[in-house]
Write a structure and sequence with these properties.
InterPro entries: Cyt_P450 (IPR001128), Cyt_P450_CS (IPR017972), Cyt_P450_E_grp-I (IPR002401), Cyt_P450_sf (IPR036396), Insect_CytP450_Detox (IPR050476). Its main location: endoplasmic reticulum. GO terms for molecular function: heme binding; iron ion binding; oxidoreductase activity, acting on paired donors, with incorporation or reduction of molecular oxygen, reduced flavin or flavoprotein as one donor, and incorporation of one atom of oxygen. Heme binds at residue 461. By secondary structure, the protein is of the alpha+beta class. It is built from 19 helices and 11 strands. The strands form 4 sheets. A 4-stranded mixed sheet has the order 1-2-9-6. A 3-stranded antiparallel sheet has the order 3-11-10. The longest helix has 32 residues, at 309-340. Bound molecules: protoporphyrin IX containing FE (HEM) and 2-acetamido-2-deoxy-beta-D-glucopyranose. Protoporphyrin IX containing FE binds at residues 120-121, 132, 318-319, 322-323, 326-327, 330, 382, 387-388, 391, 453-456, 459-463, 466-467, 471.
């Protein structure tokens, strides 16, 4: 009897302690007079996303609908306070003008716990600043133009691959299909290696790059759980010995990098690629840059950082990861929307045909600005299907907004990209595909700070130019020969997966029928 009583008391105490522990920050927004959503213990306002029942872009969108007239409002991401900002002006302030205070992405203090997260995407503060500054020269327009010959040869291989695959089956799964092209591009341009991802797949798929890609972007409940757990409670996550990414990834890229460096005898080549840049770093042993505090004080303060193998390896993995999946998704969503919108498809194809006629069936870097309609289609797709439907920032130094709101270090900022891109005030009839919105003559009708396909401010996507170049090259290669239709089983509206932070269709690919267009023979690439 006594024992039972003790047990009952113990259970009550434990439940009570858990309750206190998981709700102790729940007065954060009330104390600051910020309108907020009433949270649930442990799950806060993101229950559906945390339980992997709903794509995060949608979860946040619903939260936004309740506070339509507020510039921002408070939520609890699990147990942690997060400020959701919807006002374009406040977003500009926070993402750009006051960047110093909110320069972190998420769980910034824990980036060093894994090789794969120890890079410019995850890092914050000085570590982020100095690496970002040193990687930026890789991505100038001039560099892209110099690199384009590599993309051009990849496009030739893609041309052959499409013919081969459509010979096997008229229905193509555009997502995996596009990824074979973009993976090959990034491996060739960044590492100077032949990934062979466009070679026919016979029997079991043994391509190691594709295998690594699947490891990094695994879609499963186990991985979804890890992503959320790390994002909300990183100290417990790493305390329990979890890792977001499997160690096989570091091992594979470690070997790859070593092999490439050796094959160049540790001397920069004339390729001017990522490996050359790294070799430059290695020679100096340190990299130099400005301290992030320069952004606060306005005084220039130089700092240096030691270059070790892990630093280089983690950036290398990041280029691979950021480089292919994002662009493959965008390419396949563009083909999907063109399949649904035959008029737009005709116009895009006509533009491609005219470009090839003008340039004698060769592509060059001008594809990124001589195809305004196709480019507008890609932007419209990025509006409807932003690769990151939600963007996060972390307050890194106590911060006071111009409104007087005080935020402590560690507080999270959520930018509801999917919601903003579907706000009818900014984009009328937001669920319809209207590439005209992004044509040069209409571009200035778009309200500033309402379109964030590549993020904003100093953390803007580093690979933006590269992304545009490879996505458009891929689209030109498809459109010049094929017309697309949805396959019979392909729905006209997609449900997004809740288990990944990328905007991806749930439990299905993008199945399209590829039909040969008339006159394609006159548009075959001319090869050197
Ligand atoms: C269509 C393709 C792509 C899209 C839509 C995309 C989108 C984004 C977005 C939204 C961010 C977050 C920006 C922010 O926090 O403000 C980002 C960051 C980043 N992206 Fe991309 N990206 C694409 C392709 C690429 C490619 C091809 C590369 C590299 C070759 C790349 C490298 C990066 C890097 C390094 C960052 C981190 C920047 C930082 O935190 O300083 N991305 N990208
Ligand atoms: C939003 O996206 C990021 C990935 O950039 C993810 O880590 C974060 O936890 C997501 N969820 C929310 C609710 O912000």
């Amino acid at each position: 009897m006594n024992a039972l009583l003790v047990l009952a008391v113990l259970v009550t105490v434990i439940i009570y302690l858990l309750y206190v522990l998981t709700t102790r920050k729940f007065d954060y927004w009330k104390k600051r007079n910020v309108p907020y959503h009433k949270p649930w213990p442990l799950l806060g306002n993101y229950a559906k996303y945390i339980l992997q029942l709903e794509y995060p872009g949608h979860t946040i969108q619903k939260l936004c609908h309740k506070f339509k007239d507020q510039p921002y409002f408070g939520t609890y991401y699990g147990t942690e306070p997060a400020l959701v900002i919807t006002s374009p002006d406040v977003l500009k302030q926070v993402l750009t003008k006051d960047f110093y205070y909110v320069n972190g992405r998420e769980s910034s203090d824990y980036c060093g716990r894994e090789v794969t997260t120890h890079n410019v995407f995850f890092n914050a503060g000085d570590k982020w600043k100095i690496v970002r500054q040193n990687l930026t020269p890789l991505f100038t327009s001039a560099k892209m133009r110099n690199m384009f010959h590599l993309i051009e040869t990849r496009a030739h291989v893609f041309e052959d691959m499409i013919d081969y695959e459509t010979g096997m089956s008229k229905t193509i799964e555009a997502r995996r299909f596009s990824a074979r092209f973009t993976m090959d591009c990034i491996c060739s341009c960044a590492f100077g290696v032949e990934a062979n991802t466009m070679a026919p797949i016979q029997g079991d798929d043994t391509n190691p790059f594709r295998f690594m890609g699947n490891q990094i972007f695994e879609i499963s409940y186990a991985r979804g759980f890890k992503i959320v757990f790390r994002a909300i409670w990183p100290s417990i996550f790493y305390g329990l010995g979890y890792q977001l990414f499997p160690p096989a990834v570091d091992q594979f890229f470690g070997k790859l990098l070593k092999g490439v460096l050796e094959s160049r005898n540790y001397e920069p080549s004339s390729r001017n690629d990522f490996i050359d840049l790294i070799l430059g770093f290695k020679k100096e042993d340190v990299i130099t840059g400005d301290s992030i505090t320069s952004m606060k004080t306005g005084e220039s303060k130089k700092i240096t950082m030691k270059v070790d193998d892990e630093l280089l390896l983690s950036q290398c993995i990041m280029f691979f990861a950021a480089g292919y999946e994002t662009s493959a998704g965008t390419t396949s969503y563009t083909l999907y929307e063109l399949a649904k919108n035959p008029e737009a498809q005709k116009r895009a194809a006509a533009e491609v045909d005219a470009f090839l006629r003008r340039h004698n069936n060769k592509i060059n870097y001008d594809i990124v600005h001589e195809l305004p309609f196709l480019e507008a289609c890609v932007y419209e797709v990025l509006r409807m299907y932003p690769v990151l439907g939600n963007l996060t920032r972390e307050v890194m130094d106590n911060y006071v907004l111009p409104t007087g709101l005080q935020l402590d270090k560690g507080v999270r900022i959520h930018v509801p990209i999917y919601h903003i891109h579907h706000n009818p005030e900014y984009f009328p009839d937001p669920f319809s595909f209207q590439p005209e919105r992004f044509l040069p003559e209409n571009k200035d009708k778009i309200k500033p700070n309402t379109f964030y396909p590549f993020g904003a401010g100093p953390r803007l996507c580093l690979g933006l130019r590269f992304a545009k170049m490879q996505v458009i090259a891929g689209l030109v290669t498809v459109l010049k020969k094929y017309r697309m239709e949805l396959s019979d089983t392909m729905p006209r509206n997609l449900i997004f997966d809740a288990r990944t932070f990328l905007t991806q269709p749930k439990d299905q690919g993008i199945d399209l029928r590829f039909i040969e267009r008339e006159g394609w023979e006159s548009r075959k690439y001319v090869r050197a």
